[in-house]
Design brief:
Shape: globular
Helix content: 25-40%
CATH class of the largest domain: Alpha Beta
CATH superfamily of the largest domain: Type I PLP-dependent aspartate aminotransferase-like (Major domain)
Mean pLDDT: 93
Low-confidence stretches: none
Number of domains: 3
Number of helices: 20
Radius of gyration: 24 Å
CATH architecture of the largest domain: 3-Layer(aba) Sandwich
Largest sheet: 7 strands, mixed
């Protein structure tokens, strides 16, 4: 029997500076070792790899409270929502004593009545209890006890208590910390990743600012993004991450009557997880995933209970387009809203509102920022009734974009149009080069005449945008390793996309490593698929690096 081996630390170089949102994996084996938990890394994409500043914050809380784990969330309110929502699943009996948990229960119960039962403390399986002078008198042995520590300091006698979870308000950093005392609740970390309630590393560094100053910057940024998307700045919401924008858009449309979503084409992995896990948790019908013959299957799939349709335009990583005009026409004829994730196309190439789409989401981390040094998300919509619902929820959960992230994005977005013009030009040239290379089996990019999405690109897009994917002619670990390991500057070997710097990653290995062969086939993914986000460097230099590595693989 082999001994358990703790993963070793691997220091990797950040892409984007101290607050960078990606990191370099020099070798393909480094990525495999990371996915197999043989190593852990010091830097990376913030929803997956905790920033060193936040790691210190979590570690201090973990030590101070003798916890087995600590999770830092964007705000105290969002931390409470994350926990209440985590346990808001069919059949649970919960006791709430007072305050914010009751507000979240009322909010969720109004949307999804009958999912859980609110009961007395003696009948409950789970107790949500607020501290009284640093103690928890309502604590009951043998049940799941969740403590709320607002402005109080925890009494020393409770540091080794039988609390399963403790949510505290870190007032110094204006954030929420979830302390985990039972390892079975560690799944909260994954749930935070899915819905993107992470805290920005810049928030830890922030000095206190005047509310008026933040509001002024926020209004100006909303106006800039709304102008790009032909939208209304009053119906524009800024979030801590792109996944929060996705979650809120889906969550805002779901109800007990309109309780089923339809997802079209291939979607980002955490969007898939939200659509898989949350309806199931609430006892709602499973999401319908349509990946083939989309228009033909859509009409038959929409029912009276359909809450919404979500699509990436184009999709990540297969860069697929659908006839969105037809989708919207079918959806609206049956009173169904359409959400478009426009992160990859960007408003430089495409404006979904011009085709009567109802909600638009972006990960502002990607092309809108373009510098690998910002994290955030944005949601725009047209319906004032839904906008009011979203406004109420975001205020209740205190979900906004950190002031310093607003400031950085405001600066980065100034050169957005010039950046995208160059990215469009470079990506079309790189796609053509790859298509003609003897070591390449298939290239996914709509600028290519051979691509099945080429005609739809001309119908909808100004350009093909910067993301493309490809498969090696011999798609094996050995060939993939030779190719990946021999890439050189200016291509950076790191996840994320939408940067002015060219980034390459083996997308399926990084995002779907645990998926079965059958699951990958259903998604249409080759295990060694390479995803390239083309930047603004000299295109000849990008091609030289690719050619050099491809010749090694061949």
């Amino acid at each position: 029997m082999s001994k358990f081996k703790f993963p070793e630390k691997r220091n990797v170089k950040s892409i984007g500076g101290f607050h960078g949102v990606s990191a370099i994996f020099p070798k393909l084996q480094d990525i495999i070792d990371y996915e197999e938990n043989n190593i852990y890394i010091n830097r990376g994409y913030p929803r997956f790899v905790t920033h060193p500043l936040i790691k210190v914050l979590e570690s201090e809380n973990k030590t101070n409270f003798n916890a087995v784990g600590a999770i830092a969330c964007h705000s105290y309110q969002s931390a409470i929502f994350l926990v209440i929502d985590f346990f808001f699943r069919k059949g649970n009996k919960i006791y709430f004593d007072e305050g914010l948990p009751i507000e979240f229960y009322n909010y969720l119960n109004k949307k999804f009545p009958g999912v859980i039962t609110k009961v007395s403390d003696s009948e409950a399986d789970i107790l949500v209890i607020s501290s009284q002078n640093g103690t928890f008198p309502s604590y009951v042995t043998g049940k799941i006890n969740i403590g709320l520590l607002g402005t109080d300091k925890l009494d020393n006698s409770y540091k080794s208590s039988e609390l399963n979870l403790l949510i505290r308000h870190d007032q110094k950093n204006n954030t929420g910390i979830i302390l985990i005392f039972s390892i079975r609740n560690a799944m909260l970390t994954i749930f935070r990743r899915h819905i993107g309630f992470n805290i920005s590393s810049r928030k830890i560094c922030s000095k206190e600012i005047l509310i008026e100053r933040k509001l002024r910057h926020e209004v100006n940024l909303k106006r800039s993004i709304a102008n790009l998307e032909h939208g209304d700045p009053n119906n524009c919401f800024l979030f801590p991450s792109g996944m929060t924008a996705i979650f809120v858009s889906i969550f805002s449309l779901l109800s007990i009557k309109k309780n089923q979503f339809i997802a079209l084409g291939s979607l980002y992995v955490d969007t898939i997880r939200i659509l898989e896990k949350w309806p199931k948790k609430y006892g709602l019908p499973e999401t319908i995933f349509i990946r083939e013959s989309i228009i033909e299957n859509l009409e038959d799939s929409i029912g009276e209970n359909t809450a919404g349709i979500i699509v990436e335009f184009p999709s990540n990583p297969l860069i697929q387009l659908i006839d969105l005009e037809k989708v919207v026409k079918i959806a609206h004829s049956k009173g169904v809203k359409v959400i478009v994730d426009n992160t990859i196309a960007t408003p430089y190439n495409f404006n979904p509102f011009d085709f009567d789409v109802d909600l638009i989401v972006h990960s502002t981390t990607k092309f809108l920022s373009g510098k690998n040094n910002h994290i955030g998300g944005v949601l725009l919509l047209k319906d004032h009734k839904i906008s009011k619902k979203i406004d109420n929820f975001t205020k209740l959960a205190n979900l906004d974009m950190d002031f310093n992230e607003i400031r950085i994005l405001t600066r980065n977005i100034r050169n957005f149009k010039d950046r995208m013009k160059k990215i469009n030009e470079n990506s079309a040239i790189v796609a053509k080069f790859l298509e003609n290379h003897k070591a390449i089996k298939k290239v996914y990019h709509p600028s290519l005449k051979s691509d099945p999405n080429h005609d739809l690109m001309h119908k909808y897009l100004k350009g093909g945008s910067g993301l493309l994917s490809f498969i090696l002619r011999e798609s094996t670990k050995k060939k993939a390793e030779r190719f990946y390991d021999n890439l050189h500057s200016p291509i950076l070997k790191g996840p994320s996309l939408g940067s002015e710097k060219t980034l390459l990653s083996p997308y399926v290995i990084m995002a779907h490593y645990e998926d079965s062969k059958e699951e990958l086939e259903n998604l249409g993914f080759d295990f060694y698929l390479m995803r390239l986000s083309v930047g603004i460097e000299k295109v000849d230099n990008i091609i030289k690096s690719l050619d050099h590595a491809l010749n090694f693989s061949n």
